[in-house]
Amino acid sequence: MVAAPAPGGADDRIALVRRLVSLTEELGSSPGLEEAAQRIVDAMVGDLDLCDHAHVTARTGKNGPWITAHSDGVAKRLGDSYVFLGTSPKLHITLADPLTRTATEHSDGRWTRFLTRAAAHDVRSMYAARLTTSKRRIGVLTLYSDSPDAFEEQGTALLATVTDHVAITLQHKIEVANLTRALSTRSLIGSALGILMERHSIAEEEAWKIISRTSQELNIRLVDICRRVVADTEAAASPEEPSSSEKSPPREEAEGSG
């Protein structure tokens, strides 16, 4: 990694803001949350030039699935580093040599083995920070560098600015993804209710009871039951491909039989 100039000057701040604005514009055009997360880690290594490897993990909601993105194989193999944050908002370690041991809340065998793995991949410093907004915790951004002084040179103010920016951007993408998913689910449920109402000549309340009861009896999510109802109806409505015996005879045969 080419070491970035020490931040602090007006030119450095302006350059950083411009790069972050460009990243925001790029993320705005990304089709989904996974794609946005991937562009973020790529930017950490590329346009922002903050590190040699980057990893991000984020959660779409309290009970939502986790998504992860990594810039390369090294970041993927060291992606479990976020578990060592404990209750701390950030974790900054420097490995001047492979034998260095930095204490954390998890200074146990797992931590020692992780540091050994990191050193084996020539990682000499790591900066992990929680991605949080005023609304919620989103995930963790972790930067890895082959230089022991990389994050000392950049300064905590710059790294905090980048982390906050990433958190706000991901929060927006998560809100959009959740809203899109909610609208899609609502539409799917409405379609399934309509199908059952028409098929059995029943009211919406009765159709809802059928779906709810089926979901409980089969231990399948309600939305998945609705998806099956809609899919089965669409499949039944699709015209079937005629068998070979039902297809029209060749033109020559048809003319000869006349």
Secondary structure topology:
Blueprint: H1 10-28, H2 33-45, E1 53-59, E2 66-70, H3 73-77, E3 90-94, H4 109-120, E4 125-132, E5 137-145, H5 150-154, H6 156-200, H7 204-218, H8 222-237, H9 251-257
Antiparallel strand pairs: 1-2, 1-5, 3-4, 4-5
Helix pairs in contact: 1-2, 1-6, 2-6, 6-7, 6-8, 7-8
Keywords: Kinase, Transcription, Transcription regulation, Transferase
GO molecular function: kinase activity; RNA binding
Region (Disordered): 233-258
Q: Within the largest sheet, what's the order of strands? A: 2-1-5-4-3
How would you classify the helix and strand content by structural class?
Answer: alpha+beta
Total strands: the figure is 5
> Whole-number average pLDDT?
81
What count of helical segments does DSSP give?
Answer: 9
**What is the C-alpha radius of gyration, as a whole number of Å?**
27 Å
Order of H and E elements: HHEEHEHEEHHHHH
Instruction: Catalogue the unreliable spans.
Output: 1-7, 248-258
- What name goes with the CATH superfamily of the largest domain? GAF domain
| Overall body shape | elongated
CATH topology heading of the largest domain: Beta-Lactamase
Q: How big a fraction of the residues is strand?
A: 5-15%
- Major sheet details: 5 strands, antiparallel
* CATH class (first level) name of the largest domain: Alpha Beta
Estimate percent helicity.
Answer: 40-55%
Into how many domains do the coordinates divide?
2
Distance between the amino and carboxyl termini: 82 Å
InterPro entries: ANTAR, CheY-like_superfamily, GAF, GAF-like_dom_sf, GAF_ANTAR, WH-like_DNA-bd_sf
Biased composition (Low complexity): 234-247
Protein name: GAF domain-containing protein
Region (Disordered): 233-258
